[in-house]
Amino acid sequence: MRRLELGAIRICKSCGRGRAELLTDDGDTVVVRLGPNRARVLADLDGTPTDDVPWLGDVVARRAADIGLHVADVVIDDGPKGLRGFVTWVNEGEDVTVAACEPEEALETALRMGVPIFATDEALRPDPDAERPGHTLH
Length: 138
Hints:
Elements: E1 2-11, E2 18-23, E3 29-34, H1 36-43, H2 56-66, E4 69-79, E5 82-91, E6 96-101, H3 103-113, E7 117-119
Parallel strand pairs: 4-7
Antiparallel strand pairs: 1-2, 1-7, 2-3, 4-5, 5-6
């Protein structure tokens, strides 16, 4: 597994969909596609609430912390039907729970919780749209 850092979140001006570009220290990338709402939220994410109603990820994280669960890390993997995410939760007794989710949910969890993001070797692959003439963000 390799550690990732957020390179950029790009949003299509026409439809609002976006992509998060995650980079390794030697330039390999993982691109996570984002729906319009999540693209906007992640692009504006700076730790301050922007809505009067909390997002599900915040509520789940707070409730989990109330019972002693904390996010340890997030992994992006290449599953049988495309990218998927894994969020690792650890309790105070060091019991580990891993939950699968959409890659954009994993990314949002990592950014909100300030935990490391990793990718499996299988997830590190060139973006198939990058070389296509006239490609869009999505």
